[in-house]
Each structure stands twice: as structure tokens, then as C-alpha cells.
Write the C-alpha cells for this entry.
Amino acid sequence: MTTDHIHFPDAFLWGTATSGYQIEGGDANTDWYRFERDPESGTAEPCGDACDSWNRYEEDLDIIQSLGLNAYRFSIEWSRIEPTKGEISQSALEHYRDVIAGCRRRSILPVVTLHHFTLPLWVADAGGFESPEIVKWIGNYAKVVGEALGDGIGIACTVNEPNIVALMGYLMASFPPKVSSWERFVDVNRVMRACHVAMRDALRAGPGNYPIGFALSMQEYEAVDGGDDLVNSLRQEMEDEYLRSCSGDDFIGVQCYTKIIIDANGLVENFDGERTEMGYLFWPRCVEYTVRRAAQFTDLPIIVTENGIGTNDDDQRIRYLLEALKGLKEVQDEGVDVRGYFQWSLLDNFEWTFGYRPKFGIVAVDRTTFARSPKPSAQWYGEAARNYPHSVASIP
């Protein structure tokens, strides 16, 4: 399969996104399961049953269909597919085939991510992304997924935010394996890019002729009080090297949430302006900024694979999404080749070290019964997507 034969959907993709570990529940075979139970990890609470989507995915798909969205981005858990080295779970592959088939029955394009932050314990215990075998292992995993599921996949993201895996795990010491080293951060970024290539090439062996890329976390940075050198260093490692490396891909996924302010000492946390529940600056214009910046580096089609806001105020969420879609229209009007927009997230789910406090979902989930309750923002987003760009035309 070559890029000359890649089939992109004819329609613009309006979707919502989740990840396996954050919604499925019950997966004790990952580095995150162990990490979140370590009192030194700083994790607010364990993931536990999450949203029970391993059992309730049909209900989730029904909600997406009811909103009129035409795409769903979700992830496959390596720890379920290959629970121990070389042992492939056919039942797990069949489960994910059922999810893909459920999407197809509802005319929802399945956008499948193969790695979203978590590693099987056997991989983590062998060194994770610092193991000399990781590129081979993750490439073999992608080969298994591609051979089993490729004929149903609509679009594939190999790795979700590889730069965040490196940043939070190997520089900020906030994710597994809780390391703080600039040198190891740089090395892991290099390994993540090699992992992507191995996964992409494995998937291209077929079956299927779907677009393949990765999803990159991007920021709008603002340097203040001597922060220019640090911003330039961060951009180089977090964005530029990745954007220069993706010429052989079919698209680039852009994920953005806010603007980051940096001074000579690092992240500025005391700033003026509206905040979200995560403590982020309320900054929906990051969409147009990051999409424009990605387009400066590559001519590949761009998909906004994640964008949203963590808040208990659903009116604030609607304001954020409205401004974000306005920015999306502006870059499209400039001629940037944007193929889709995915709101994060469908469900109020497990937000890593923050636990269940931040609410990114357009659908609330009862923590005891797992009952789903679409918020006003869910209906708003569905209508805005169906009526786009007229839905944002009235914004001054």
C-alpha cells in the first residue's frame, strides 16, 4: 500500500474522542494501573472501572450516532492484545473488531489509535521506551492489529501524543516511569518517532487502505521575562522535530487545549485570565494557532484529533467549542487542508494523575451506576457540526 492509494473520507470528519484505558475499566495489566497505586505517584485516585465502556461501548456509539457525528476516535489497548510477550489474545482482537463493526453499522468512521499512553507491564518492566527492543515490539503489535482489524479501520493514529509521553514520563516525572532528565527526554522523543515509523510501515502491509499518521500535542507558547530560549528549546523537542519527521505519513493529527506562558524559570502558573477546571488558561484560539503552525512545516492534510476543555460549567464548554470552531473556519478559509475535528472527550473519564475531577466530557457518567447523561454541550456540538460553518458565522 502506498500513499497514492490512500482513501480519505469525502466528507469532513466531525467526531469525538476517547482512549481505551480512560474509559474501558478493569485493565490491571498496564504500567498506569501500577503507577496510580503508588503513593509517590501523585495520582488523585485509581482508574478502577473507568466508564465501563469495555461492556457499554454500544451505548456510547448510540450516543455518538444520536448527535449526528460521523466519526469516533478511540484506542486499542496493547496490554489486552498482547498481555504477555508473544501471547496474542484473540478475544481482545474480536472485541475491538466488534467496536469497529458497531461504528460501521451506524455510519460512524472508526478512527483507531494504537498507543494512548499505557504500556503492558511486560514492556514497562523491560525498560519501556528505553528498551532497545521497543521499536521491534511495538511494530510487531501494530502488525497484529493491522492484520486482524485493518479491513475495518477508517483512519489510524499510531501513537497519541508521543511528545507528552516523553515530556511527562521522562522530564516532568509525572507519568510512568517518573524520570526527570532532559537527555532521557530527548532520547525518548527520538525513540517515539522510530516507533511511529515501525507501526506505520506494519499497518501499511495491509489489509486496508486507510490514512495513517500520529497525533501530536501542540501548544500556543508565549515567552515572557527571558523565556524565549526555553520556548525555543521546548518547541524544537516537542513539536518541530516531530513535524519535520512526518513527510512519509498520510496526515498529521494536531491536539491542542490552551496557551502556555513561559519565563526564564519555566512554566508561569500565576497569570491573569479565565481558567478552566484543569487550571489551564481559557484559550480556544489555540486551534487556529497550532493548525497554522503545523501547516508551516508540512503539506500533509491536518486533522484536529483532540480539542476541548475540562470544566464543570457546561456553558463555559459551549463558549470554548464555539470559539474553537470559529478558529477552525478561519484556517480553512485561508486554504489550510483540514480534514476533521474531534472534540475531547465523549465521556467524563479518568484524566490520568487528576483522576475523575476534571470533566472533559459532553456526556456525564455516574460514578456508581455508569449511567450516561448527555449534557447540553453534546446537543450543541452535534448541531454546530451539522450546521457548520453557519453555526459560527455570527461570532464577531
Q: What stands out?
A: The chain has one domain: 3-392. The two ends are 46 Å apart (CA to CA). The first strand starts at residue 13 and ends at 17. DSSP finds 13 helices and 13 strands in the chain.
